[in-house]
Amino acid sequence: MKCTIMNKRTITSRMFTILAVPFLLLAVLSCSDEQDTLDPTSTLAFEAYNIKTHICTYSLKVGDNCAVRSISIYKYKNDSLAYDSLMYQKEMTSRMSIDSIYRNNTLLAYCKYTPDGYNIRAEIKDFGGNVTRDTLPSQAVSSVQSPKSGDRWYYPTYQLLSWNSNFSDGVTLDLYKGQNYYQQITTGVKPISNMSNHGIYYGSYNWEKMPNLPAGNDYRIKVSSSVIPDAFAFSGKFTVVPYITITYPASSCSVFTGDNFQLNWNHNIDVLRIDLYKAGVFYLNIAGNVTASSYTWRIPATVSPGSNYTIRIFGKFDDKELYAETAGITVSSLQNQTITVNGVSFDMVAVAGGTNTLTMNSGFYVGQTEVTQALWKAVMGSNPSKFSGDNLPVEQVTWNACQTFITNLNQLTGKTFRMPSKDEWEYAARGGNQSKSYTYSGSNTLSDVAWYAANSNSMTHPVATKGYNELGLYDMSGNVLEWCQDLFGSSYRVCRGGSYIDASCKLSNLNSWYPDTEDQYIGLRLVASSL
Asked: How many whole angstroms separate alpha carbon 493 and alpha carbon 483?
């Protein structure tokens, strides 16, 4: 800082840039002599900054005389005084020997952080009223070197982050998407070097474990220090472009051992292998050197039931292995279940996912028989059926009444039973992934597996008295129609399976009725996603 004070005498006073996070510099400077002006050889130089104690040191070099009357520190923004602008002021009224106040011409002054975009202005007055000013620019962090604005990150891969900062302590790196915090990358990174010993520190971090980042062009890296949380700098915006994108499953799902589990993905590199992980730890290899964009995996019985599985699809780029990872997968044991409610038991058959004429990516449970009158009475306390018998299928139940029955059953058992979708119903009726492509459920001969118009004598018959299909399910052709969850059009609900009054009970048939319809040939069958 070079300035002219009264009587045309000059003083040169240099403030070396602290090159720290913006701080409000609170300085104390006091000296006096018998003159009214400063000696031209006097200088003021800031030399060091300690971020932990917020103390900076500076040296004052003077001639034989000193005429500094006051020093003031202001906060400025855009060359205007900022709010609460006067940060420090010291007035000297006595005229004392410089050596009696400051030993070795070294002073201590406390510093305070100044927000990015503000400047610090020092004003020194002599006893003649003349003012000398100097301005120190405020910088939170000097610069972020990588990533640069417009960079493209190919996810998932490693990424080298680097920056120059004034932080002499540990640095925290955070990832932002748009204006919003996304996640912390790491904290406590020590600087690598102090460049030129001027208080600018170089730091870098190799981000080896990047998370699943959604593609986007509005990511930024924030560099900050825990010592002064408000001091930070952002990188420019960069774009994330995935090398491998899993399109199915897009969210958490449940499967059974024995399921045919299909993975679908998009990729820009060759797929090296597909692995199963449990709680982030490698569990088993699924496949290697897959050239297509999909793979169907039959889940072996050796996979233990659990809720913390993921699948990783690996590729390679720039000698680095990259991978995309599914959301959480819950694996359940493929075992039939017997449920008892108010003394009445019924069996639920585990149906593995897979493909027949339909594809089911996840397994589910389905009732081995239609809901019986005994089970309906155990839950509802009454029996609406035309034909009476505990082991007969319940009928004359509306779709709405079935919803009430299921709600009550779930409250009694603590389970989550529901109606099947029309596709779940057909997949199970066709034998699941064990299907033999029969016309009817379990046979090409209708009379082997169904009570229908030609053999029913116009009445229902006890469940499980005809043949079963590939999964061990009874009466999915004939006896009573079965409500499904799906709408048909805007006002109807789907029924499937045919009944004792139907001449044809092909699995491809689909019926629909108003949800408040109750007839002696409509009943229901239960399903559950898990038990």
From this structure: 7
Across the strands, what pairs with 512? 494
- pLDDT, residue 216, reads 82
Number of Cβ within 10 Å of residue 297's Cβ equals 16
* pLDDT of 200: 66
Cα–Cα nearest to 129, from 73, 101, 91: 91
- As given in the structure block, the two tokens for residue 151 are 């960079």
**Within 330-419, where are the H helices?**
373-380, 399-413
Measured distance CA(283)–CA(110) in Å, rounded: 57
Q: How far apart are CA 238 and CA 4, in angstroms?
A: 49
∠ CA 396-427-248, nearest 5°, is 125
Note the Cα 303 to chain centre separation in Å. Answer: 26
CB 473 within 8 A of CB 485: no
Q: Answer yes or no: are the C-beta atoms of 503 and 526 closer than 8 Å.
A: no
Q: Which residue has the tokens 């009264």?
A: 6
Say if CB 349 and CB 473 are below 8 A apart.
yes
Distance CA 525, CA 509 (A): 17
320 C-beta neighbours (distance < 10 Å), count: 11
The span from the CA of 133 to the CA of 114, in Å, is 19
The helix/strand/coil state of 379 is: helix
Distances (CA, A) of 167 to 32, 51, 112, 233: 37, 7, 14, 11
Assigned token pair, 363: 């397994």
Task: Provide the 8-state DSSP code for 196.
Answer: T
Q: What pTM was estimated for this model as a whole?
A: 0.48
Alpha-carbon span 276 to 248, nearest angstrom: 15
Q: Are strands 522-523 and 481-488 parallel, antiparallel or unpaired?
A: parallel
Mean pLDDT of 29-40: 42
Percent of the chain as helix, strand, coil, to the nearest 5: 10, 45, 45
Residue reference for tokens 């008295």: 465
Mean pLDDT across the chain: 77
Concatenated DSSP letters of 362-394: S-EEEESSPPBHHHHHHHHSS---SS--TTSBP
Residue ranges of alpha helices (H) inside 383-445 are 399-413, 422-429
Torsions phi, psi for 207 (to 5 deg) = -85, 95
Contact (Cβ atoms closer than 8 angstroms) between residue 519 and residue 501 = no
| Separation between Cα atoms, residue 466 and residue 370, nearest integer Å | 13
* Secondary structure (3-state) at 77: strand
Q: Which residue did the predictor score with more confidence, 341 or 144?
A: 341
pLDDT for residue 267 is more than 90: no
